[in-house]
Write a structure and sequence with these properties.
- The protein is mostly beta strands.
- The protein contains 1 helix and 58 strands.
- It folds into 6 domains: 101 residues, Immunoglobulins (Immunoglobulin-like), CATH 2.60.40.10; 111 residues, Sandwich (Immunoglobulin-like); 104 residues, Immunoglobulin-like; 97 residues, Immunoglobulin-like, CATH 2.60.40; 97 residues, Immunoglobulin-like; 141 residues, no CATH class.
- A hairpin with a 2-residue loop joins strand 51 and strand 52.
Length: 711
């Protein structure tokens, strides 16, 4: 019979974990760069060379077979891969001309295995286009421009642009714009997808909104990196009749009871044609407009030549210290400014910076029966909503939910209001109403409902997702989503809204002809720490299939996978604080898993340094961390990087910053009335009185053991 020590040794050997043999593994079996644009720089992909064993593997040969001038290898030399580690090799495809590439990355090692081969393929095309102008006149001294001549407001002059694809790939105009944006120019037509040798026509229309001569630029943004935009200079002279009224906002401040205050309001002809002032009246804001009187020595209607003005006296007689508001409405013969409104008030609350994302909503029965609008407080002072109602009463419009008033809208906060249009089944006449929100001033949204839906359109968005990619918490960003009308009838866009205060949306135009395109600009304004944002863009239109089209919006960090490799424009960033600080908790760590996660973010450190989150909004530039092996996990403690045992991941509570750290298993036997407690300062376990002492959250660790964590 064999001895007992031999049996114990056999049992120990049979239970020992199997040792991985040393060998070189590649994470890719093929690299396909697809079809890219030539002459615009390098297109990169990363290969990971990994050795799961203990002994080092030596790389005896690493080459491209056959060599290709379009392909480069970054990260060389790679002579060996240590046990339990990996090396990263970047393959760069940098085509300068049209054509294809085909090569094989061959890696030979001393691990006794056959050479590893990774086929590499790619193709390159170049995108190019030219703009041909119609035969109209050019601006003086500027060949290749468009002169729209002298145009009177109310008439339209059209000029055409023909975009011809002259490259070897498909090029397209993803957005067309004209500056100045408010001068009265619009662009219609479709040149979104132009194969080589084809062309698309865009029509630029001008109905002046600004008086006098102007120069501008037509900008056609393309999908090409080499030719990101095409520009056509323009010039025009607008003959415009316009009315301006100043000031646009008038506050009398605090007016004591029994006293009066007087202010002057001036109406002027601010165009280069005469304007007729046809009316000047008060528009009472509910019951708060008492005490105001408007008078003028001039009789109406009154024609004002260009530059001429007339004055009105607004008087407020105070009878008490109640808040008083009114609105003055001036009407004119101008097509540009047929109505000008002036808000006036006295004894008002502190001002708040509130904004509505729309000023009008258009509804169609069975198509856009409900539409959202967002009220955002863009300042740090709280706003108080004192009144919220739709006038006149009895209209077919109603709010989806009523607020309990007065309602406080905190600084930098926002609220979404949903308006419904519910005409009677037999109704055939359009309806109008006004949504009024009374804060420091009265904010109004005009409502228009049409019980007869228009001919249906069909809008196709250029992408299923508006993706901002990586967030830089200090830099606002914008993304453009194209919309193409592939239907046979015009599309009317009635609104573009978002459900997050960090996101706003604006329409380039509200009408899209069949075959035409427009765009919506989605803007992201950082609101503190760079935490991921997931939102929704809602487009309201007369689309036959989706009158309320919802498109997801994403902005956030990209968490690295095991083969993460940040490029030259990014910094590897190590995160220790969750996006939202919750209570204390403990979770089990998987083998090798730590409490830190890594992402590639816009560059914030120099050279090879990495960024480490040392506070909720604070980062430290440090040397790259070590590679942890032997079951240890990466953590960042007071002295810097460390490879630590990580059986548990501890989430501290808000009093201790909400940071995540690694913790070993407690391995403590505590007396009655005590429990293993993880110390926030020393990162160590000790026996402390039970958690119910106000300093710790009581948590049950995985496996059922009672432990305590700082709250």
């Amino acid at each position: 019979m064999r001895s007992l020590p031999w049996l114990c040794a056999s049992l120990l050997l049979s239970c020992a974990p199997a040792i991985e043999p040393s060998r070189l593994e590649l994470n890719r079996t093929r690299l396909d760069f697809g079809t890219v644009e030539a002459g615009v720089g390098g297109f990169r992909t990363v290969l990971a060379l990994r050795n799961p064993g203990e002994a080092a593997v030596h790389v005896t040969s690493l080459r491209l077979d056959p060599p290709a001038p379009e392909l480069e290898l970054e990260g060389l030399p790679i002579d060996e891969v240590a046990g339990g580690s990996r090396k990263l090799l970047t393959v760069v495809y940098r085509p300068l001309v049209d054509g294809t590439v085909s090569s094989v990355l061959r890696v030979e090692t001393d691990d006794g295995l056959a050479p590893r081969e990774v086929p590499i393929v790619g193709a390159a095309l170049h995108l190019d286009a030219v703009v041909q102008l119609d035969s109209g006149a050019s601006c003086p001294g500027t060949p290749g421009s468009l002169d729209f001549g002298t145009v009177t407001n109310g008439t339209t002059v059209s000029r055409q642009l023909v975009v011809e694809s002259t490259g070897t790939g498909v090029i397209g105009v993803v957005r067309a714009s004209v500056s100045p944006a408010d001068a009265g120019f619009t662009v219609e037509g479709n040149a979104r997808s132009l194969p080589p040798g084809t062309s698309g026509t865009l029509t630029v229309k001008y109905d002046p909104r600004i008086a006098g001569p102007l120069t501008g630029l037509i900008t056609l943004e393309t999908n090409s990196l080499a030719l990101p935009k095409l520009e056509v200079p323009l010039c025009a002279t607008g003959l415009v009749s316009a009315l301006c009224v100043a000031p646009a906002l008038l506050s009398f401040g605090d007016v004591a009871p029994g006293t009066s205050a007087v202010a002057t309001v001036t109406a002027s002809s601010c165009g280069n044609l005469p304007v007729t002032l046809t009316g000047a009246e008060q528009v009472q804001a509910a019951t708060t407009g008492t005490g105001f009187s408007l008078r003028s020595d001039a009789g109406l209607p009154l024609t004002l030549d260009a530059g001429q003005s007339t004055s009105f006296e607004l008087r407020f007689d105070s009878t008490s210290r109640v808040r008083a508001r009114t609105q003055l409405r001036f009407t004119s013969s101008s097509l540009v400014t047929p109505e000008v409104l002036v808000n006036a008030g006295a004894n008002l609350p502190p001002p708040c910076d509130a904004r509505l994302d729309v000023t009008s909503l258009h509804f169609y029965k069975d198509l856009a029966w409900a539409q959202p609008l967002r009220l955002t407080n863009q300042g740090s002072t709280d706003c108080v909503i004192e009144r919220l109602e739709i006038l006149p009463l009895g209209s077919p419009f109603e709010l989806d939910r009523q607020l309990e008033l007065p309602a406080v809208l905190p600084g930098n906060g926002s609220i979404e209001l949903v308006v419904k249009y519910l005409p009677a089944p037999t109704e055939t006449q359009p309806a109008t109403a006004t949504l009024e929100l009374e804060l420091d001033w009265v904010h109004r949204v005009s409502l228009q409902g049409d019980p007869l839906p228009p001919p249906a359109c069909h809008l196709v968005p250029g992408a299923a997702l508006v993706d901002f990619g990586l967030i830089d918490p200090s830099v606002p960003a914008a993304r453009i989503l194209s919309l193409t009308n592939v239907g046979s009838a015009p599309c009317r866009l009635m609104g573009a809204t978002t459900n997050r205060s960090e996101l706003t949306a604006s329409l380039v135009s509200t009408t899209v002809e069949p075959g035409g395109a427009t765009a919506v600009t989605v803007s992201y304004t950082p609101a503190g720490a760079a935490v991921p944002v997931q939102g929704t863009l809602t487009l309201s239109s007369n689309d036959a299939d989706e009158p309320q089209r919802r498109i997801p919006v994403s902005a956030g960090h990209v968490r690295c996978d095991p083969d993460c490799h940040c490029d030259a424009t990014q910094t590897a960033t190590y995160w220790r604080f969750p996006a939202q600080s919750g209570g204390s908790s403990i979770t089990t760590a998987a083998p090798g898993q730590g409490a830190i996660w890594e992402s590639c973010d816009p560059r914030r450190c120099s050279g090879s340094q990495v960024a480490v989150q040392v506070g909720r909004d604070a980062f430290l530039c440090a040397q790259p961390p070590p590679t942890c092996s032997g079951g240890l996990a990466l953590d960042f403690v007071i002295d810097g990087w460390a490879c630590v045992p990580c059986a548990l991941i501890v989430q501290y509570g808000g009093l201790f910053g909400g940071v995540r750290v690694c913790a070993p298993a407690p391995n403590l036997s505590c007396a009655a009335g005590e429990a293993p407690t993880f110390d926030a300062a020393r990162h160590a376990w000790s026996c402390q009185p039970t958690c119910d002492n106000g300093l710790y959250d009581q948590r049950i660790a995985p496996g059922g053991a009672l432990v305590c964590v700082p709250c």
